[in-house]
Design a protein that fits this description.
It contains 3 helices and 3 strands. By secondary structure, the protein is an alpha+beta fold. It has one domain: Trna Endonuclease, Chain: A, domain 1 (3-Layer(aba) Sandwich), CATH 3.40.1350. A hairpin with a 4-residue loop joins strand 2 and strand 3 (about 75-80). It is globular and about 35 Å long. It starts with 8 loop residues before the first helix and ends with a strand.
Length: about 80
C-alpha cells in the first residue's frame, strides 16, 4: 500500500505503479491463486485517475485497484 504523502502525488503514483508489476510477477510464481490490488486513497483516485496519461496507462497495463477512505480506514470501492 502506498501512502502518497510526498509532495508530488503523480510521482508517487508512478512509483507505486512501477512497483506493482514486479510484485505481481513474484506473487504469480509463489502464490498463483492470489490476486494483487493497488490500494489508493480516495482523494488520490479522484484527483489523478481522470488524467489522460493515467487512464492510458491503465488501459494498456490494467491493474486491480482498491479505493479506500484514508481517515476512516475503510474500503470504498474494488475495481477489477
Amino acid at each position: 500500500m502506498k501512502s502518497f504523502l510526498k509532495t508530488s502525488k503523480i510521482t508517487e503514483f508512478y512509483h507505486a505503479f512501477g512497483q506493482f508489476f514486479p510484485y505481481k510477477v513474484a506473487l504469480q510464481q509463489l502464490e498463483p491463486d492470489r490476486i494483487l490490488y493497488l490500494a489508493v486513497p480516495d482523494y488520490i483516485y479522484e484527483a489523478l485517475f481522470n488524467e489522460i496519461l493515467i487512464k492510458s496507462l491503465l488501459e494498456q497495463y490494467p491493474i486491480k485497484l482498491i479505493i479506500y477512505v484514508a481517515d476512516r480506514e475503510e474500503i470504498q470501492t474494488w475495481i477489477n
